[in-house]
Amino acid sequence: MGRKWNNIKEKKASKDANTSRVYAKFGIEIYVAAKRGEPDPESNRALKVVLERAKTYNVPRAIIDRALEKAKGASDEQYNELRYEGFGPNGSMVIVDALTNNVNRTASDVRACFTKNGGSMGVSGSVAYMFDQTAVIGVADKSMDDVLELLMEAGVDFRDILEEDESVIVYADPDQFHAVQEAFKQSGVTDFTVAEITMLAQNYVTIPAESMAQFEKMIDALEDLEDVQQVYHNVEFEE
Prior knowledge:
The chain is α+β, with helices and mostly antiparallel strands and 239 residues long. Helices cover 45% and strands 22% of the residues. It has eight helices and eight strands, in the order ααααββαββαββαβαβ. It has helices spanning 2-16, 19-36, 45-56, 61-72, 103-115, 144-154, 177-186, 209-224, and strands at residues 80-87, 93-100, 120-122, 131-139, 160-164, 167-172, 194-201, 228-233. The strands form two sheets. The chain has a four-stranded antiparallel β-sheet. Helix 2 packs antiparallel against helix 3 (45-56), helix 2 (19-36) packs parallel to helix 4 and helix 6 packs across helix 7.
C-alpha cells in the first residue's frame, strides 16, 4: 500500500506547480459544494471535505470566502459533475473527474488529451471498478503507535495505517473521514499533510521509460484542463 501515498504526493506536487490554476479549481469546487447544500461546513459534509483538502493545498482564505459568498448570493451558475474513464500505455488506467458548465467542451477536451497522447477513452465503468474510494488522512507529528492508540480510543474504523514520507497515513472508508479527523483534532492536531477522499487503484502497474514520458504528458494535459478537478491513475512513479 505504500505506493498509494506516493501517487497522491506526485499528483499533489504536479498541481502545486501552478497555484493559480489550483486555486481557481478549488474556488469552483467550493462554490458547487456550498450551492448544493448549505454554505456552512458544519451542516454540509461535502463542503467540509473540500475545505479540509483546500487547507492542505494552502488555498488562501480570500478565495474560499469569495466562493462561499458567491454560493450565498443570487448566482445561478450551474455545473455538471462528470467522470471520464480511459486507458494509457501498458495497462494503465485513468479516471478524470470534472465540474463543467459546458459538457460538450469538456468531453471533447478530455478525449483529445487521451487520443493525442497514446491513450483512449473507455465507457463508463470500464476503469472505475479497479479503484476504491478511500479517505486518506496524514499527520507529521505523531508516531504510528500514537495514531493507532488514539483511533482505537475514539472507536474509529480504518483500513490501514502506514508510515510514509515522514507522515503517518490513515486509510479509511469515506464515511470515516470526519471521524478520523476529529480523533486527530481531539488529540491536538491542527495541520494535516493530506486530507481528502480520493480514488486509489487496487493494483499498480509500471510503465517502461520510453512510454513514461508520454503518459506523464497525458496526465499533465488532463490536469491542465480548466474543467478537470481530479485525475487518478494506477501507475507507480519511481521514487
